Amino acid sequence: MVIDVIGIVGSPRKKANTDLLVEKALEGVKATGLQVQKFYLNDMEIKPCQYCNYCRKHGSCYIKDDMNILYSAIEQSRGLILGTPTFYGDISAQTKLFIDRCYRYVEIIKKEDGGFLFSSRLPGKRLGMMIGVTGSFGPETFNKQIEVIQLLFNDLNAEFADRLLYTGTDFLPVRDNPDILSLAWDKGVALGQRIKNSL
């Protein structure tokens, strides 16, 4: 079965804030008639990148673990929804492990002036959406996360199509906020429609 849009949950907590928003966004995508699948990074065996540069020469990673499942899903996908909670003002450790292992997809091109271009080895453009949550800080908390996820989406040949950033979950959890759940669903629908219109 072809999976059109994958959802990746970078939180260790199921049915909590990040997971609920990713799930609701995927429900919105599914409402447009596309196929979706969700992955919990915390349930997967993903080893840290060893920066051995094997992927630079071979185009694949020598580590054999559950990232191979995610590689396959990414490569067939037309869209990606990545959700992460905020740990110490940044993405979760689970999300960082995943992102580092996507290094295999970046194409590094040296320019004549000595600078570098970073493009993707992945064929086929896809759309990317970020979901970020934080317990008690303001929206500035997401600045570093956005920068890192922009780099990831570039390497995955994904347009940074949308984002949903929710603050203050310590005071108003996602499950108690129907407005944010509705917004996540709406954004999922919009993402799914954009993908369908591009087919």
TrEMBL record:
All copies of domain NADPH-dependent FMN reductase-like, residue ranges: 4-113
TM annotation in the entry: none
One Pfam family matching this protein: FMN_red
InterPro entries: Flavoprotein-like_sf (IPR029039), FMN_Rdtase-like_dom (IPR005025), ISF_SsuE-like (IPR051796)
Keyword field: Flavoprotein, FMN
Example of a GO MF term: oxidoreductase activity
The keyword Flavoprotein belongs to this UniProt entry's keyword annotation: yes
Superkingdom assignment: Bacteria
Protein name: NADPH-dependent FMN reductase
Originating organism: Thermanaeromonas toyohensis ToBE
